[in-house]
Amino acid sequence: MVSISGLGCTSNWNTKLPASSELGTPRGYQIARTIIHLHSPYSYDACDRAGLGKDGTPNAECLSHLRSALCSNHIDAAFLTDHPHHMAEKTFEELLLYKSGDTLLLNGGDPYANQLEACEDGHQTVLSVGYEDRLMPIGMTAHLAGTTAQRLTDYVTETSAFVTQLKTDTSAIVIVPHTESRSDTLLSTLGMDGIEVFNIHANIDPKIRGRHLRLDYFDRFSDLLPYWIDPFHEESPDLAWLSLFQLSDVYAEKWDKLLGAGSKVFGTGGSDAHENTIKSKTSDGERVDSYRRLMRWVSNHFLVSSRTYANIKSAVGAGRSWIVFEGFGTPVGMDFYADNGTTLYNPGETGTYAAGTTTLNLKLPSLHKNSPQGDRSPVIHAFLYKVNSDGTRTLVASSTGGGDIRYTVPAVGIYRAVVTITPLHLADFMNYDRQKAFAEAPWILTNPVYLQ
User: Fold this and answer.
1) Half-sphere exposure (Cβ direction) of 251: Cα atoms closer than 13 Å
2) pLDDT tens for residues 113-158?
3) Which of 105, 282, 339, 388 could form a disulfide with 113 if both were Cys (CB 3.0 to 4.6 A apart)?
């Protein structure tokens, strides 16, 4: 907890996220909080470009920040995505950050995941290996065969044949990162499993904002200054992200074009944490871009039968999930599914449409009781969209009149939902930038349900 004294706030800022076991059990499923797109000290540019020492060992302080953040944010699974340099050079045991107290998950004696030593409260995170370059395969079970030099060449490849090879030879789930910079034509040919539909790095990088996201290069950057200076400790530095957070329409446009053209691709939110952007510290004594801070900004919530690594990876591959901008707070009771009268279908799944009886159902979430909140309550709405074959989308239902959504589907199609939040509950934690607490913003993006 960090005490905040601004504008009559009587609560403490909670620096931890609640355990996923507290987020509800929609239709008997459990929720697994995951981080997808995460760099360890084995990425060449991580830890202020000092991730590895001269002897090749990981930066101990940076690594401790990473492990601590996984505990603080109660991450159930973290899919590491280090850059090919140095990832291609290291063994899987090294890449899995194994140390005494951890438990390696083995296949024929070879490690493919690492159950980290229990946190102080008993929580455990499982890590797996992947990489980020033009493609981002996650949950790899082995390196591609060949020499290190061959891998360094292979891992920067971006073709449909290579996507297939990664799936076949490494059991990877293949995602395209930084979708904002990829052409629609290229995306339509790769055959990947998923795409990023938000990335923190892209959101805060002036070049990417201007060139690819249709946002102003330096708009809102001056709003970060009060979180750095803050001589009276009246701001919560975790809310600095609201100064820059904007969900560009570019992501929805690219995703919907793929879906409309028949590509079944799930969407993910990328943390892209490196601890390499803004190392100066804020009033809470923590660097601006700390692992803990960035991981809480965006997470991916998957529906699983239990929180084993095998079940989580299966859910990721199926896209059985929604993206949560958890910097606004943690949702409880969220659910989205289709019902044709005999069978229920989750996000990412294809269901059989039955005329007159098929419904789409969205249960509106509430704010977790331990999320930071002042005297006001947030305003939460949901919007249900149909993705059209031309790549546009049509609003078909909303909860702006209050309550959950139950929509009788008139025709086959692809449907996904957006939950928004007006974060009035954060106003008491904000002095300089309070107006952002009165602006509606995206909170949850679901993966599509496909009805045919």
Assistant:
1) 24
2) 999 999 999 999 999 999 999 999 999 999 999 999 999 999 999 9
3) 105
CB 196 within 8 A of CB 179: yes
Report helix, strand or coil for 443. strand
Q: Are 139 and 78 in contact (CB under 8 A)?
A: no
Reference 379, options 419, 416, 406; nearest CA is: 419
Q: What single-letter DSSP state applies at residue 220?
A: T
Structure tokens at 452: 């045919």
Residue with tokens 């059991």: 171
Q: What is the pTM of this model?
A: 0.96
Whether 378 contacts 363, CB under 8 Å: no
CB 374 within 8 A of CB 11: yes
- Domain ranges for the chain: 2-451
Q: For 447, list phi and psi in degrees, rounded to 5.
A: -75, 160
Task: Report how far apart, in Å, the C-alpha atoms of 367 and of each of 6, 124, 184 are.
Answer: 22, 24, 36
User: What stretches of 302-382 show up as alpha helix (H) in DSSP?
Assistant: 309-318
- Residues 6 or more apart whose CB falls under 8 angstroms from that of 237 comprise 227, 230, 282, 283, 284, 286, 288, 293
